[in-house]
Design brief:
The structure holds two protein chains of two kinds.
Chain A (H helix, E strand, L loop, with lengths): L9 H6 L4 H11 L5 H10 L2 H4 L4 H4 L9 E3 L7 E6 L2 E9 L1 H6 L1 H17 L4 E11 L5 H21 L3 E8 L8 E11 L14 E6 L9 H4 L20 H17 L2 E6 L4 H13 L2 E5 L12 H6 L5 E6 L4 H10 L4 E8 L3 E6 L2 E7 H6 L13 H6 L13 H10 L7 H4 L10 E3 L6 E4 L5 E8 L2 H6 L1 H18 L3 E10 L6 H21 L3 E7 L3 E2 L2 E2 L3 E11 L14 E5 L10 H7 L11 H16 L3 E6 L4 H11 L8 E3 L8 H6 L6 E5 L4 H10 L4 E7 L3 E4 L3 E4 H9 L1 H5 L5
Parallel strand pairs in A: 4-5, 9-12, 17-18, 24-27
Antiparallel strand pairs in A: 1-2, 2-3, 3-6, 4-6, 7-10, 7-11, 8-10, 9-11, 12-13, 14-15, 15-16, 16-21, 17-21, 19-20, 22-25, 22-26, 23-25, 24-26, 27-28
Helix pairs in contact in A: 7-8, 7-10, 8-10, 10-13, 16-26, 19-20, 19-22, 22-25, 23-26
Chain B lengths: L2 E5 L6 H11 L4 E5 L10 E4 L19 H11 L4 E4 L1 H8 L6 E3 L7 E9 L15 E8 L3 E3 L2 H9 L3 E5 L10 E5 L5 E4 L17 H8 L3
Classes of the chains: A alpha+beta, B alpha/beta.
């Protein structure tokens, strides 16, 4: 069947997710009607996933510039940041939500595979992975199945590739029921001169196809990810790709060797929209054209038509443009790693993406227009109906029903969102490459850069309850919290990558959430001078029951030089505990309300960006003087949970604390479990406490001594007293118990 | 002592092992590509961890056919030291250089964490710097580390003092808590825990370094 033989009907156009006005635009670009292959190509390139057509105008709000930014957001597969002395890091977070909802193991595995390819095609060797995972209530059998599958899939891919998965976050909330979120982060390291661009240049340079053969798996995955999930989505299972991490490990080594040899002109992985995206984007970036012959593409199934070959999202494939005359050098490296490579085309000077089958031309599209000129929409926005009502809820109306405060603390420690994620991270090889100097469970993941005095700290964060109740504040807080976490390790926040997970943007209330969240992120990123280096947008995270809570996942990357990182657990008896920041009567949107009363309401804690910035300065200054023996951010569950975690989070080295907090006019609940922002619990050697207080006060941050480390229990005022064993059991074994495995 | 760290397709602890012997211990060391089976200049062969050949079929089952393995066998026959860590241990089992086999972990899950080991025997050139019954803190990271051998083999291993390391808290269901064994000639050592991950203070333990230090005196 030739593409020309298929009649383009309004129904077919609609099935490709193309609107009548977009179809008119396509006709004007081509100067004629498209054939079905071309229609398919436009449909994937102009899907939200590839074109950001619904979010582009909002993303423009985010700051991109900074003195360390070498490759900025949107320019390449991942952003690149200078960390000094000739070293650079490339990093990005990306979603694989829809595939993971349908087929959790492969969906999550290929999510890791995709983000890793983005990093190493830039010439950087991936050195760490992290992830942010969100599910419905863990008690639901369907959620257990998803959690088990997603974690095993991530482990399968990352462990086999030999890249440590060092941490991240796992969050449970009803809004993710049927809409799990799987956001994968990866970070790579390179010398500055090793970074390469995904560009097609030099007329006549050969185009190689490298890696796995093309099959019908992942057909139109980008288009699939750009619509709502429904009962029908099960039928999309073939749109979920199947990963082969071993093959990708070979690709990784071969690509890095190839790039070192200097014979590569440009390279891009075939991720979303596969061969289509990689050909037109490399051509567009180089201001060139490209011609390929699909008959030369290795195929694992028979009878594939050009439409299928161009749209397939089979994994572990790369497009490599080699300098003419150096093909043999490249082929030697392919052969060394037992990789299949075929020369499938060449770079042209006419700006056209031309696809042939045998000798017959089946696609001719101006590459730049296809890649860069997708329509951009500004969607209608409207404040959601729930917004004002939720905001006016007063948490005090529930406090009489709190009961025993000790029991409340244990309940919070036992709630899966707060509890230890040991069940998850022990399935990940988090130590391979021997750079993981802070094991999972601290505020940020920290890895060393061998041969230097540098450490990279990363934290992934988003409190989506806050974002639901107040998207602007929620977006701001997500950035501030991740910056605080990074700073608690002693590292200075450098740059942000983000993954914006929202519902259907055609719903004005959802679009309002998106825009307000991004505005919050922008204000925080500007205040902290941490530009956004890139990321990904995942819309349509909704099913007939509703949309996910707005979830702008923030990945904050920081740099520490010349001294060892700080960890979050208390170390030695007699150390003085200091609390930085003020506590207010702020229980709105808290885990306390959610866990004890099943209530998701109330005003979100306020965040003053000036205070937040001062706090970062205070933490970094004390860390720089080597004053901090531990530092732990106060977030979900408030001060009581933060103190308990500092006591119990390092397995085998648990140590108690006795704390006396000034209560003032606060309710005991707000004092213990309120989630006031810009607070950090630190411990310091008693002999150096005075100096620590001086440094912190000099930064304008309120600080007070609240107690001492030591003993076998945690005691707070007369309100809480619990043995470490009891706290530890609640917190450490929570997910093990719920997943039916002994700790 | 010159170390040769063998690189199979899918090896991923190769850099880590090289780092310890070269950068931490300051010994000459190099990678040995699995297709270039020349071990004539190598004193101690290291088979590193990872997923050689993607662990397809069975862990280590394909790697044993790799060209370098004939040379490794000859190296071992000459009484020269060979250490296989994690996937390297699995390959040694498949190649018949050590007795027994690996099953999937009892939990059916991959497990990565620090475990406590007990030194069961120091009767090996890899254990010179260790004391019997000494406790070691060294991480494991594997999906198939559940050591199995039949009763007769276990009896022989015990009688010959070939079990060098046992788990204190068995993380995978291994028979008799076995974590590491040696051959009868005592020059081939296989273990599931990763001593290269416990060889620098910054990584939380230096208990693994003693194993590499021990072998320095052997040749």
């Amino acid at each position: 069947m030739t593409p020309q033989a298929v009649e383009i009907t309004p129904d077919l156009i609609q099935k490709h997710g193309i609107t009548p006005s977009e179809y008119e635009e396509i006709k004007s670009i081509l100067g004629r009607e498209p054939n079905v292959t071309e229609l398919g190509i436009f449909s994937v390139m102009w899907s939200e996933h590839c074109s950001y057509k619904n979010s582009k105008n909002v993303l423009k709000l985010l700051p991109k510039d900074g003195r360390r930014m070498l490759v900025k957001a949107g320019e390449e597969n991942a952003g690149v940041v200078d960390i000094g002395d000739g070293w650079v890091i490339a990093f990005k977070v990306e979603s694989h939500n829809h595939p993971s909802a349908i087929e959790p193991f492969q969906g999550a595995a290929t999510g890791v595979g995709g983000i890793l390819r983005d990093i190493f095609t830039m010439g950087a060797r991936p050195i760490m992975c992290m992830n942010s995972l969100r599910f419905g209530k863990i008690e639901e059998p369907a959620v257990k199945r998803l959690l088990t599958g997603v974690v095993a899939g991530i482990a399968h891919y990352g462990n086999c590739m030999g890249i440590p998965t060092t941490g991240g976050e796992v969050y449970f909330d009803e809004s993710y029921e049927g809409n799990p979120l799987v956001n994968a982060f990866a970070l790579g390291l390179a010398r500055k001169e090793e970074i390469v661009k995904a560009k097609a240049e030099g007329i006549g340079n050969p185009v190689f196809y490298l890696g796995a053969a093309t099959g019908r798996d992942g057909m139109g995955g980008a288009a699939f990810a750009s619509k709502d999930l429904s009962a029908e989505s099960e039928k999309d299972r073939p749109a979920v790709q199947v990963g082969d991490p071993f093959l990708q490990k070979l690709l990784l080594e071969a690509v890095l060797e190839l790039l070192k040899s200097g014979c590569v002109v440009g390279i891009q992985d075939m991720g979303a929209a596969g061969l289509t995206c990689s050909t037109c984007e490399t051509a567009s970036r180089g201001g060139m054209g490209i011609e390929i012959d699909v008959a030369k593409v290795p195929q694992r199934e028979t009878g594939m038509i050009p439409y299928e070959i161009m749209l397939s999202e089979s994994q572990e494939r790369m497009l490599v443009i080699i300098q003419k005359g150096r093909e043999d050098e490249a082929k030697r490296i392919f052969k060394k790693w037992d990789l299949h490579a075929e020369e499938i085309g060449f770079v042209t000077g006419d700006g056209i993406m031309r696809v042939k089958e045998g000798g017959v031309t089946v696609v001719e599209i101006p590459a730049k227009r296809l890649a860069d000129d997708a329509p951009v929409y500004t969607r209608e926005e409207r404040e959601p109906a729930y917004y004002k009502e939720k905001k006016t809820f007063d948490p005090k109306t529930l406090l009489a029903k709190t009961g025993d405060l000790n029991a409340a603390l244990l309940k919070l420690l036992d709630s899966p969102t707060i509890a230890s994620k040991e069940w998850v991270y022990e399935q990940y090889d988090h130590m391979v490459r021997t750079n993981t100097v802070v094991l999972p469970g601290s505020d940020a993941s920290v890895i060393r850069v061998k041969g230097t005095d540098k450490y990279i700290a990363v934290s992934l964060d988003c409190n989506s309850t806050y974002c639901y109740l107040d998207p602007y504040l929620g977006g701001k807080i997500a950035v501030a919290e991740s910056a605080r976490n990074v700073a608690c390790s002693g590292a200075a926040p450098l740059s942000v990558t983000n993954c914006l997970n929202f519902g259907n943007p055609h719903n004005p209330e959802i679009f309002w959430q998106l825009k307000r969240s991004v505005e919050g992120m922008r204000d925080a990123c500007v205040a902290f001078a941490t530009p956004v280096s890139g990321g990904n947008v995942s819309l349509y995270n909704q099913n007939p029951k509703g949309a996910v809570d707005p979830t702008p996942t923030i990945g904050m990357v920081g740099l520490l030089e010349g001294r060892e990182p700080v960890t979050s657990h208390f170390k030695d008896a007699g150390d003085v505990i200091l609390l930085l920041g003020d506590t207010h009567e702020e229980l709105g949107g808290s885990e306390f309300l959610k866990v004890l009363f099943g209530v998701k309401a109330g005003p979100v804690p306020r965040l003053d960006l000036g205070e937040a910035k001062h706090l970062l300065d205070a933490i970094l200054s004390t860390a720089a003087e080597g004053l901090l023996k531990s530092a732990h951010d106060c977030s979900e569950g408030g001060l009581a949970v933060a103190l308990a975690e500092s006591c119990i989070s390092f397995k085998g080295k648990e140590i108690g604390a006795t704390v006396d907090l000034p209560q003032g006019s606060l309710t005991p609940q707000a004092l213990l479990f309120g989630e006031s922002q810009s607070r950090v619990v630190v411990s310091v050697d008693a002999a150096r406490a005075k100096r620590a207080l001086e440094v912190i006060e000099s930064k304008g941050v309120p600080v007070r001594e609240i107690g001492r480390v030591g003993g076998e229990s945690l005691a707070i005022n007369g309100l809480v007293k619990a043995p470490l064993k009891v706290l530890s059991h609640a917190w450490r074994t929570s997910i093990h118990r719920r997943m039916g495995s002994a700790s | 002592m010159r170390f040769g760290v063998v690189v199979f397709p899918g090896s991923n602890c190769d850099h880590d092992c090289l780092h310890v012997v070269k950068d931490v211990l300051g010994q000459p060391a190099e990678f040995v590509w699995h297709k270039d089976p020349d071990l004539s200049k190598i004193d101690c062969v290291v088979l590193p961890g990872g997923f050689s050949y993607g662990d397809y079929l069975r862990t280590g089952a394909i790697a044993r056919f790799s060209p370098v393995m004939d040379a490794v066998k000859k190296h071992a026959e000459k009484g020269r030291p060979v250490i296989g860590i994690c996937n390297g241990f699995q390959i040694l089992l498949e190649a018949g250089l050590l007795p027994g086999a690996m099953l999937r972990n009892e939990s059916l899950k991959f497990v990565c964490k620090f475990v406590t080991l007990k030194v069961d025997s120091t009767h090996s050139p890899f254990m010179k710097h260790l004391k019997k019954d000494q406790r070691l803190s060294i991480p494991v990271a594997h999906g198939e580390g559940n050591y199995y051998a039949d009763d007769a083999t276990l009896k022989k291993l015990n009688e010959n003092d070939q079990v060098l390391l046992r788990y204190v808290d068995n993380p995978n269901g291994s028979r008799e808590d076995i974590a590491g064994i040696t051959n009868e000639a005592r020059n081939v050592f296989g273990l599931m825990p990763h001593p290269e991950r416990a060889s620098e203070k910054e990584l939380g333990s230096t208990d693994g370094l003693a194993i590499f230090q021990s072998i320095l005196e052997a040749v």
